[in-house]
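User: Hi! I'm working on a homework problem where we have to compare a predicted structure to a textbook description. Could you give me the structure for the chain below?
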Amino acid sequence: MDFRTQIAIPKHNDIDLDCRIMLLGSCFADNIGTKLHDFRFACDVNPFGVLYNPLSIAQSIERLLTEKPFTKDELFCHNALWHSWMHHGSFSDTTPEHTLDRINQRYLPACANMSHIDVLMLTFGSSWVYEYDGKVVANCHKVPNNRFVRRRLTIDEITDRYTRLFTQLWQHNPTLRIILTVSPVRYMRGAIPENQTNKAILLLATEALSHTFADRVSYFPAYEIVLDELRDYRFFADDMIHPSGMATAYVWERFVQTYLTPAAQAQLPQIDKENKHAAHRPLH
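Assistant: Happy to help. Predicted structure tokens:
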């Protein structure tokens, strides 16, 4: 007897070891990006840091296409640190010069990579956004909540923005393939029903985009694998919100089966063996 429902995922099998990949989005993008990097794929992971909402991810991609470095005018100071509204707090520092160095040292290589990537993977984490002076921010940087307008994106708002963005990307890079996914990390700032409606908007938006551009956009069901196929709290970390290491490893296996070419899949065990040898610490 089989005591679980396994999700059927259409096979693409078009990513080889020489593919160049960029990943943007939530911490789940970091998890998959780390796996790709470990197996020696040429990948650029979250050059703006972890991003959660679709509009901030879109803004980041649009900025990469401009190849315009960040300047001091785009920073602000709060709690003795200099921040960027487009970046995660890991880029913040005590002087604007240090913050700009951190930002542009990641940004400029990512601009160069953007012209040559074969695959772009986007992971949406939340449909909730925070607006400051009428603009969506990627991170609030602990600025008081009353300075922001909090609202939830609509399905049409996401699909319209990405329809324009994808068209722009393919003008820039006609052979680019795009993978969309929704983060399995639950949004727990509100009640459980709020998480469900939050994720539902993202799921419906990614479904619409993957159907509209079916020849070049695919959807990988990471959210469904963790929340339905695994469907057990033993597959979550101690906070009961983030997937455990075991769950992430299983999602990675399904990703490999779905997207990697048979030739690439055949090479992974040998690469894994070499990585373990390289990490081995001799006793003497």
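For your comparison, note the following. The radius of gyration is 19 Å. The CA atoms of residues 98 and 154 lie 37 Å apart. Good luck with the assignment!
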